[in-house]
Amino acid sequence: MAAGLSAAPAGAQKRRRRAANDRVNVAVIGAGGMGAANMERLTGENIVAMADPDMAHVAKAVADPKRAALKAAYDKAEKYADYRRMFDARKDVDAVLIATPDHHHAVAAKWAMERGLHVYVQKPLTYTVREGRVLADLARRNPKLVTQMGNQGHSGDDGRRAVEIIRGGAIGRVREVQVWTNRPIWPQGIARPEAVATPASLDWNVWRGPAPVEWGYNPIYAHFNWRGWAPFGTGALGDMGAHLVDFPVWALELGLPTRVETRHSPWGTPKSPADGSYPLATVTFFDFGNAKGGPIRMTWYDGGLMPPTPPGMPAGARMDPGGGVLYIGDKGMLMHETYGEKPTLIGDGVAERAQVVPVSLPRIRDGIRGHEMNWIRAIRGEEAISSPFAVAQPLTETMLLGGVALRAGVPIDYDGVAGRVTNVPDANRYLDREYRKGWEL
């Protein structure tokens, strides 16, 4: 860490005992953008602190009168540009919501957990495979910490019903899954631009944080388009896989992939891919040789690419170009939208078989819209947590392996137990990354 910023051992900060309806002291890291969307569901709690390197951006996020309650809460919260200083200064925080760019997720979450704080981390859980395993191990060793990833579809009623139907055998044995999204909806496949003057409100050094690149500021990176740039984001698969891939991994108990191959359009900087923007479109083939019900292939499409329309589509139904999942079984098919919503049954007799599949999964209060409060209620002991790190980490690892195969440029064979690429030893370097001094994991 930087001088004057001290680390703390696991469980170092004493947690207050929580009673039912007791308000939780919450801090937020990355308070604008998605952070504001998450936090406006938590205004019934005590929002005591916030860390963001651009408070002008945060102010814009809460300028809408519809967010008056969030603005009032933010106005009262103590403000920091650097979350490391917030961790050192505030000893009254119970829980931290992290909604930064991807490259900060693991660093911020680990430091919070080491201080005994409950954490909610936006998806993807981490930027690298190793980071995910570090956080999952930390969560296992600190079972009283409540962890949640921001894949809100995991809390939805429709998605949970889709899982029940598939597990109940209504479409038979599944051997193939097709997944697609319209992302990226930000610039990708382009060359890196020249640096320009940094806005006076932005602490660019803090925004870059762990990223070991000496890039100057350009508005094409911050505050939204970072998803398409390799040092900061994880591309379309990292952004939307946590929603879309979640359901097949869950329903079919896939385990980790055993082989991954990614085909793609050109990188933004072909001679040095990791130093530029991701390709505009990719197709990734995931083979799950150890899936519970036998081998399964899942194919991921992004950049607006989609699989063909399946035969027997019900009248009026269509494949949502925004994103969806299609499960192909030997007795029929099931399709749903990005967050598990609107399950559509395809094939003779599927609807009748689905109707008799019993409800077996718990429902989360308020469904998708209750994902953030599910975390709070779990902290208070009122409800089981929806998407803890034990669930989020293997899902995130699966997604990130698509990026590993993308960088490797060839199919990779993966040993999930060892966490190693076995056929291309050099590709193992993509499971980890370097960190800028003062921002080490």
Automatic annotation (TrEMBL):
InterPro entries, per database record: Gfo/Idh/MocA-like_OxRdtase_N (IPR000683), Gfo/Idh/MocA_oxidrdct_glycsds (IPR050463), Gfo/Idh/MocA_OxRdtase_bact_C (IPR043906), NAD(P)-bd_dom_sf (IPR036291)
Domain Gfo/Idh/MocA-like oxidoreductase N-terminal: 24-147
Molecular function, one GO term: nucleotide binding
Superkingdom of the organism of origin: Bacteria
Domain (Gfo/Idh/MocA-like oxidoreductase bacterial type C-terminal): residue spans on this chain: 191-248
Matches recorded under SUPFAM superfamilies: Glyceraldehyde-3-phosphate dehydrogenase-like, C-terminal domain (SSF55347), NAD(P)-binding Rossmann-fold domains (SSF51735)
Pfam families: GFO_IDH_MocA, GFO_IDH_MocA_C2
Name of this chain's protein: Oxidoreductase
